[in-house]
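Incident log, support desk, overnight shift.

02:14 A customer reports that sequence design results differ from what the structure should imply. Their input is reproduced verbatim below. On-call engineer (initials T.W.) acknowledged and began investigating.
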């Protein structure tokens, strides 16, 4: 009966060593104008071993979701994505007119140069979750 706990400890250690499997490049967030309570953030995310982005949050917004843009007839519409697949080693680019991180219920305007923290939760193929803290700098475009 002594072996299972030891095995578990080894698994936890391996999980800890797997951190930093996810890297984020070029995070930024779009500035808002007066009365605007939504905005979008963009970044490039890469999971070395593959996984999926399962949730996002930020202290500046009531809710944060991943959205995609899709043509609906002549209209470009956005839609929430439950999870965003991150193929192993392949950068996934979130950019204007494509995938984006949607922040709704902003508590204050986002001004140029603001640094907005966004927390991403990525799950690997084994269901192990990793938290990635991102700092997105605000700019207009
Ligand atoms: Cu959106």
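02:41 Re-run completed on a clean worker. Output:
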């Amino acid at each position: 009966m002594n072996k299972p706990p030891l095995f578990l400890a080894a698994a936890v250690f391996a999980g800890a060593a797997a951190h930093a499997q996810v890297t984020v490049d070029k995070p930024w967030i779009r500035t808002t104008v007066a009365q605007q309570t939504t905005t979008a953030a963009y970044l490039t995310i890469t999971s070395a071993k593959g996984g999926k982005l399962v949730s996002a949050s930020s202290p500046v917004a009531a809710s944060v979701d991943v959205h995609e843009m899709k043509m609906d007839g002549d209209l470009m519409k956005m839609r929430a994505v439950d999870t965003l697949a991150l193929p192993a080693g392949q950068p996934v680019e979130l950019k204007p007119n494509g995938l984006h991180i949607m922040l709704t219920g902003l508590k204050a305007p986002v001004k140029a140069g603001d640094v907005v923290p966004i927390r991403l939760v990525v799950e690997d193929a084994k269901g192990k979750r990793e938290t990635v803290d991102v700092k997105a700098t605000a700019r207009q475009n």
